[in-house]
Amino acid sequence: MNPAPGLFQVPWQEYVPALADGLLRSLGYTAAGFAGAVVIGLGVALLRISSRRLLRIPAAVYTELFKNIPLLAIIFITYFGLASIGIRLDAFQAGTLSLVIFYGAYLSEIFRAALLGVHPGQREAGQALGLGPTVTFTGIIFPQALRLALPGTGTMLVDLLKSTSLLVVISAAELMSQAQLIASETFRALEVYIVISAIYFVVCYPLSQLVLRLERRVQAGAPLSLRRYRRLAQARALLAAAETTSYSEVKP
């Protein structure tokens, strides 16, 4: 039994540029895919809670369809399937589109549940104050729904980052593709994939902890936008000034 002496023999210093490029591409796929999935997910969620059945049905079909298809199958369809009918996408376009379609379906469910989680009385209160539907949604409903959707959305972000490894099947030049090339050159598959797994952990674990910390801050009442943070600071300053003034008037 002599596994230790030969466990790490890959000259990693020669592969640092390739790994860095692969990691940056993985982060690029994550950023583009998550941004697109949030837009699609929010749009589909709004359609699903619409009072019009004609809008609810297509949105429900989209959600149920892509929630029950493996991401790998969607990647094959966008890259190889569309090419067979004359629609040719490069690896970045096909990979990003696959991530948007797949995670858009899951995020739509998270956003729908969050929007329905806001008490109906909040909308009625906005109407009683004379606010229009758009102002009621953007100023009252959406901020509260955002707090409810944050935990699930953060989990989807980390999961999406890990799922970029599936893009290796279309040679997307992301981190797992680089690992495959290194393993084929060095024939050190165990060592290579252990190191690549460690890189994914180093990236994903801080991200998940950051999301968890943000959730705790939001649950504690921290504002989600800079505008609300400034308003809260101004309100606190006014309250402090009022307390100081009342104390000086009472003091003989």
UniProtKB/TrEMBL annotation:
<comment type="similarity">
    <text>Belongs to the binding-protein-dependent transport system permease family.</text>
</comment>
<dbReference type="GO" id="GO:0043190">
    <property type="term" value="C:ATP-binding cassette (ABC) transporter complex"/>
</dbReference>
<keyword id="KW-1133">Transmembrane helix</keyword>
<feature type="transmembrane region" description="Helical">
    <location>
        <begin position="95"/>
        <end position="116"/>
    </location>
</feature>
<dbReference type="InterPro" id="IPR035906">
    <property type="entry name" value="MetI-like_sf"/>
</dbReference>
<feature type="transmembrane region" description="Helical">
    <location>
        <begin position="27"/>
        <end position="49"/>
    </location>
</feature>
<dbReference type="Pfam" id="PF00528">
    <property type="entry name" value="BPD_transp_1"/>
</dbReference>
<dbReference type="GO" id="GO:0006865">
    <property type="term" value="P:amino acid transport"/>
</dbReference>
<keyword id="KW-0812">Transmembrane</keyword>
<feature type="transmembrane region" description="Helical">
    <location>
        <begin position="69"/>
        <end position="89"/>
    </location>
</feature>
<dbReference type="GO" id="GO:0022857">
    <property type="term" value="F:transmembrane transporter activity"/>
</dbReference>
<keyword id="KW-1003">Cell membrane</keyword>
<feature type="transmembrane region" description="Helical">
    <location>
        <begin position="190"/>
        <end position="208"/>
    </location>
</feature>
<dbReference type="InterPro" id="IPR000515">
    <property type="entry name" value="MetI-like"/>
</dbReference>
<protein>
    <submittedName>
        <fullName>Amino acid ABC transporter permease</fullName>
    </submittedName>
</protein>
<feature type="domain" description="ABC transmembrane type-1">
    <location>
        <begin position="23"/>
        <end position="211"/>
    </location>
</feature>
<keyword id="KW-0029">Amino-acid transport</keyword>
<keyword id="KW-0813">Transport</keyword>
<keyword id="KW-0472">Membrane</keyword>
<dbReference type="InterPro" id="IPR010065">
    <property type="entry name" value="AA_ABC_transptr_permease_3TM"/>
</dbReference>
<dbReference type="InterPro" id="IPR043429">
    <property type="entry name" value="ArtM/GltK/GlnP/TcyL/YhdX-like"/>
</dbReference>
<feature type="transmembrane region" description="Helical">
    <location>
        <begin position="128"/>
        <end position="146"/>
    </location>
</feature>
